[in-house]
Amino acid sequence: MIQITPQMRILVAIEAVDGRKGIDSLARLCQEKLQADPFSGYLFFFRSRRGTSIRILVYDGQGFWLAQKRLSQGRFVWWPSGKEAAKRLEAHQAQLLLAAGNPETEAAPVWRKVSGEGPKQNTYVLILAVSCCGYGGDMALPRSRDR
Hints:
Structural class: alpha+beta
C-alpha cells in the first residue's frame, strides 16, 4: 500500500500509455506531454491502454520509484478525459482511484452518536459509505473508550 499524504501533488495523465514503458520513458513523457518536471516530487499516474493497471512514477530526491497496481479482475472504470494532457487530483481522490473507484464522487463522512453506559461512554463513530468497491452499506470504525 502506498501512503499518499494530503501535501502530495498528484497529476494523472489523461492519455493511456504503453505498459512496457520504463522509468526513463515515463519521465520523458512527463516533460514532453504533461509539461511537468519529473524531478518535482509530483506523483504521476499513468493508465495502461487496456485499463487493467495503473503505474505511479515519483522522484524522492535520490531516485525514481515506479509502482504498479494491476487488477486481477475488471478494469479501472473512471479515468479523466479532456483536451488537456493531465488532471490534478487531491490525495483522497488518488486513494479512490487506486481502489478502482470514482474520484469525482462527492461523499462526505457521516458522524453518528453511539450511546454507551454513563456520560463518559458516549462517543461518536465515523461511518463511511464505501462506494468505490461496489459495497453500498455503512462501515463503522471501532469505538474508542474514554478512560
